[in-house]
Amino acid sequence: MRKDNVACVTSRENVPKRVFLSNKMGYSSGASKTEETDEDSSMHAKRSVGRFFYENGIDFSVVKSPSFLRIISAAVNCGSGGYDMPQCNELSGWILQEEKKEIDYYLKEVKHSWGITGISILLDG
Is the pTM of this model over 0.70? Predict the structure, then answer.
């Protein structure tokens, strides 16, 4: 596993339970929160997000995505106890299945509305 804990592994024993910022950014899992200001904490959090985008070649406009904003909000709402990152098997398993259920439910509602609102099919080709 890489030192910055971003590797995707299947064995849960090898994955840290909590997410901490990389030591390269001035933090360690034992860093004292009393010594840093809110401004310092915000700056380091922003740098962590930036590093994630840079390392993974993600388009910067993703920060405007409603689902990205929900990710950040949900992680922040976890409080000072930290955030448990989903494991690879969770992302491809129960989380994916729950998202699929939600999309299927939404599509069912949209299709049901066609009887009231009508439907137009446009083809470009």
Answer: no
